[in-house]
Amino acid sequence: MTALLYQIDERGVAYLTLDRPDLHNAFNEDLINELSDAFTDLATHDRVRAIVLQGNGGSFSAGADLDWMRRAASYGEEKNREDAQRLSDMLFLIDSCPKPVIAKVHGNAFGGGVGLIACADIAIAVNKARFAFTEVRLGLIPAAISPFVMKAIGPRHARRFFLTAEPIDAECAKEIGLVHKLVADESELHDQVEIFVGLLLGNAPGAVAEAKALIHDFGERPITPELRHESARRIATLRTSQEGQEGIAAFLEKRRPNWVH
To answer: Which of 25, 71, 135, 248 is most enclosed, with most CB atoms within 10 A?
Structure first.
C-alpha cells in the first residue's frame, strides 16, 4: 500500500501528498523510499515546473513512525547507520532538487517532518501549526535532519530548540526562518500556495534551477576573486543560452516568453 500520492497536473505542477493520515504521516521505510523515488524522478522530469509537498489528515508529519523506531531499537549500530543514511539521502534529494519545492504545512510537524519543511524552497503554514524537535526526550538527537534545519534556522536557534524540545508556535517558526508565510486557515493556505505556484510558472525553468544551484553553491562561501569569477561565468552562460536569449527578446518585444502559457 502506497504511503505517498504522486500527481502531476496539466501545468506541470507535481503534488506529493504524504498519505498516512491515521499515523499523522509519520515516516517509515516505505515513505522514505517513496519520497526518494519521487524526487529522483522529479529532478529530471521535463514537464515538471514546480513541486508541492503536502499531507493528508490532521498533521503535516509527526516525524518517525513508532513501529519504525521500535524496529530500529533492535538493530545493531551498522544497520541503524544504514537506516539513518536513507533518511539523510531522502532529505538531500529534496534539498538539492533543481525544481522549486513548496511545503504546504496544514498541520503540526515534528522531528523529521520539520526536516522536510527545512528542505523546501518556500514554506507556508497555517497559524495553528506547531513544530518541535522532540528527539532528546527519547534519548536521541535530530542528527539526520540537522544539516538542513540549521541551514534554515541557523545554529543559534538550533541551540535552543534542539536542547529544550519545546513546542514552537507558527509565529515563532516564521521569526526563526523555518516558514516564510503564515495564513489563517486551509482555504487561505491553498490560495497562497497557488499564488506562489503562479509566480514560479512565470519564470524560466532553467533559470530557476540555476538560481537554486547558485544559492547552494555560493551561500556559505566567502567573497573571493574565484567566487566572483565563477558568478560572472554563470551569468554569461545564461545570457547566451537559448532560454536567456528568449527571455531578453520577449522583454524587449513586450511579449510573453515561450515558457509562459
So the answer is: 25
The β-bridge relationship of strands 122-126 and 101-105 is: parallel
Can you list the pairs that 3-11 forms with residues at least 24 positions away whose Cβ atoms lie under 8 Å?
3/28, 3/30, 3/31, 3/34, 4/31, 4/34, 4/35, 4/38, 5/56, 6/34, 6/38, 8/45, 8/47, 8/48, 11/49, 11/197, 11/201, 11/261
Beta bridge partners, 26, equal none
CA 231 – CA 222 distance, rounded (Å) = 13
Which tens digit of pLDDT belongs to each residue from 82-130? 988 999 999 999 999 999 999 999 999 999 999 999 999 999 999 999 9
53 and 113 in contact (C-beta within 8 Å)? no
Half-sphere CA count of 37, side-chain side, radius 13 A: 11
Residues, the chain: 261
pLDDT value at 1 more than 80 = no
> Is the CB of residue 30 less than 8 Å from the CB of residue 3?
yes
φ, ψ for residue 42, nearest 5 deg: -65, -30
Q: Look up cell 509562459; give the residue.
A: 260
Q: 204 near 259, Cβ under 8 Å?
A: yes
| Pairing assessment for the beta strands 109-110 and 168-169 based on DSSP bridges | unpaired
Output the nine-digit C-alpha cell for 103. 511545503
Q: In what order do the strands lie in the sheet with 4-8?
A: 4-8, 13-18, 50-55, 101-105, 122-126, 181-183
